[in-house]
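Weekly sync, protein design subgroup
Attendees: M.S., D.O., the rotation student, P.L. (late)

Item 1: inverse folding check
M.S. brought a backbone from last month's batch and wanted to see whether the design step gives back something sensible before we order anything. D.O. pointed out we never logged the input encoding, so this time it goes straight into the notes. Structure tokens as presented (286 positions):
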């Protein structure tokens, strides 16, 4: 699809758009996929803030929603995703600082396992949001949100992933870079019941801890253990200086905290990003 004002590769905060603008933007974001278009409209009407999507024709399909969205309707989406057995979830606690003004906010990606699952997944999510009422958050949804809310302001470099398979579920906490804290995370998460996961590509700077479960009951118990253990045992301070293992996104998150979030602070961060984007850590000064 050709680039346009609305389809420009950056996340556009939907809350600041008028209904007239949305009537142009949402069909473009849906890329001709009527089911995705309906899902985007439903999310907008139900208070679920969407921050990204793809119809899956030239890329992998997904729907990204903000953690700060209306909790009841967010839980409807999570409940539906967990029960489908044809999609996965990923919780990310920051993004690329050049991807849009809300890059630092936690978001949840819902994505089909296979290309042929795209339409059924979008359809099930639509059905979930159309219900005037829904079940209370499932225990799995509740614990996932507990963990996400706990990690939201920790600047830990962690992300959460939940993969659904016919034989059960795989939950993993992944850390890209940030190797200085891998030993700490290993001690923390193994004590909470997770297992160190084997890295299939040893040269890639990523570490993960996870668990496979046969059903949602086992999964909910595992997630509850992880949350309670983190809540009671977490002692990792916020980073205060750049390190060799720190990603640029994590550096930007730290600088955002240091500069502040008022107008002057935002301008300082923008200038810092412009001056340092693409440079190795040891060339960055502040």
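Designed sequence read out in the meeting:
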């Amino acid at each position: 699809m050709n680039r346009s004002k609305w389809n420009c590769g950056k996340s556009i905060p939907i809350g600041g758009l008028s209904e007239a603008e949305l009537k142009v933007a949402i069909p473009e974001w849906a890329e001709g996929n009527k089911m995705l278009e309906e899902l985007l409209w439903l999310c907008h009407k139900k208070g679920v803030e969407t921050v990204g999507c793809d119809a899956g024709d030239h890329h992998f399909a997904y729907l990204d929603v903000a953690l700060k969205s209306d909790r009841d309707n967010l839980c409807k989406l999570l409940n539906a995703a967990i029960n489908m057995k044809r999609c996965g979830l990923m919780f990310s606690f920051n993004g690329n600082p050049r991807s849009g003004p809300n890059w630092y906010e936690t978001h949840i990606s819902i994505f089909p396992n296979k290309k042929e699952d795209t339409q059924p997944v979008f359809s099930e999510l639509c059905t979930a949001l159309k219900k005037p009422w829904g079940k209370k958050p499932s225990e799995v949804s509740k614990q996932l949100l507990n963990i996400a809310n706990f990690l939201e302001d920790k600047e830990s470099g962690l992300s959460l992933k939940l993969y659904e398979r016919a034989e059960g579920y795989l939950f993993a906490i992944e850390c890209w870079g940030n190797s200085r804290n891998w030993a700490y995370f290993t001690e923390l998460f193994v004590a909470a019941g997770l297992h160190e996961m084997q890295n299939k590509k040893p040269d890639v700077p990523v570490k993960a801890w996870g668990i496979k479960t046969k059903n949602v009951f086992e999964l909910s118990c595992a997630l509850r253990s992880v949350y309670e253990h983190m809540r009671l045992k977490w002692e990792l301070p916020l980073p205060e200086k750049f390190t060799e293992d720190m990603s640029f996104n994590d550096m930007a998150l730290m600088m955002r905290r240091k500069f502040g979030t008022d107008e002057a602070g935002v301008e300082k961060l923008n200038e810092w990003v412009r001056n340092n984007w693409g440079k190795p850590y040891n060339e960055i000064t502040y």
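Discussion: The first helix runs from residue 19 to 30. The first strand starts at residue 50 and ends at 54.
Action: P.L. to compare against the previous round before Friday.
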